[in-house]
Amino acid sequence: MKQQWSNEELINYFILLEPEKQLIEAKYVKSQLGFAVLFKYFQHTWTLARCMVAYDRILHKDQF
Fold it and tell me: If both were cysteines, with which of 4, 16, 37, 38 could 20 make a disulfide (CB 3.0 to 4.6 Å apart)?
């Protein structure tokens, strides 16, 4: 895991914004924590996956 985080990264990756809180509060009480953790995890990995695909397309642009 990354050792040095900027304030912006901490907010983006670990803090729930108001619309996200509303989404989580709509879930069953006992599953809210698990849903929040998975939500933030997939939010982060999806961003990473999109960047990796875009980077791969740039590297291999003549093959697409």
Answer: 16
* Euclidean distance between CA atoms 62 and 45, whole angstroms: 27
**How buried is residue 36: exposed, middle or buried, by Cβ count under 10 Å (0-12/13-18/19+)?**
middle
Q: What is the CA radius of gyration of the chain?
A: 16
